[in-house]
Amino acid sequence: xxxxxxxxxxxxxxxGRHAKNSHGYFSFPKLEGPLGSxxxxxxxxxxxxxxxxxxxxxxxxxxxxxxxxxxADWGMAYPMGAxxxxxxxxxxxxxxxxxxxxxxxxxxxLLNYGYQGCMSAIEAxxxxxxxxxxxxxxxxxxxxxxxxxxxxxxxxxxxxMESFEKQLEHARKLTLQTGGGIMVMTEGxxxxxxxxxxxxxxxxxxxxxxxxxxVDDAHGFGMMGRDGRGTADAQGVMDQVDVYxxxxxxxxxSIGAFVSGxxxxxxxxxxxxxxxxxxxxxxxxxxxxxxKRLEMIRTMPELSEKLWTITRALQSGLxxxxxxxxxxxxxxxxxxxxxxxxxxxNVVLDLRENHGIFxxxxxxxxxxxxxILLRLIPTAVHSLEDVNYTVKCFxxxxxxxxxxxxxxxxxxxx
Length: 414
What we know:
The chain is of the alpha/beta class and 414 residues long. Helix content is 42%, strand content 16%.
């Protein structure tokens, strides 16, 4: 009999195999100091483009005050227990009502975490007779939700409506045999490439194929649409989104998530989402803090205006410098270069050590082989000076990469 740990020790996975060299620097790095555009990395100040702190609420004075006061008033333990048993409060309900009104949906169910919440909602909504059709670039939490589905699933090429309809045809034929229904799943904003899901085009197929639409809008909620109502609102099809998923981890700079939709469907989820039924309720300071953050999103348009000023300046500056930012039409700003994983690590090493810029590195298998994706997340607390400096540094790195300065046989280590 084999020890199950033996195979783990021999194979840490495609990215994990570089852990000896990368851990603590390229992976699991420690950013220290007050959350913002400038922080400390390994004792040096760096300009940070890797925090999903879009509206700058993470270290906002008003947010910090409310969070601290709520922690003083309630502590981190209250309420104790799962919401169905003993963890329900009027403030949890108040937050759900406020989110429903903001999103223009009948009802909302508050979730403890984004990843597990999205995954669990998908699993709860589908029976083994139903068929799931989803975009190939959906986030990992959606893919894991699809894996939990015990019925059939079909994947369509990213934002490809011809492929989408082909998979819908397969799904419709299958449901005629199973007696189930079809759920389509996509994202409002795709977190790596930054392009929006083709929600307007997708809903045009609803009448013909009679499906329900689930949209994960983690990178759209708070940034896209009127007053941050999301990507579906920006595309004018919010009423056609049957289940809307949003997270507090991006625009709200907190923890937790929510799903909004028809009242009867939300009630079903309240009683059937295992990740919520058997998990402790969100602590009160998180709930009170979320109420404050939602109020600020609704009443302080200057936060979004500053974010988009920085976003437009960053993206136009990078393009003018000859850098490839793909097809992004959101705040997510990918910079794509060609090179091996060892070259990617040397690019990041140069940016951090010699230019003082900290951004996230993404390599195969998340992106194709020999592709380096440096993802920049602009925020309302960045400045135009930050943008100009970053564009200049990235232009220099691009030239050095093309000239072969970063070539190496193995990944860099620190």
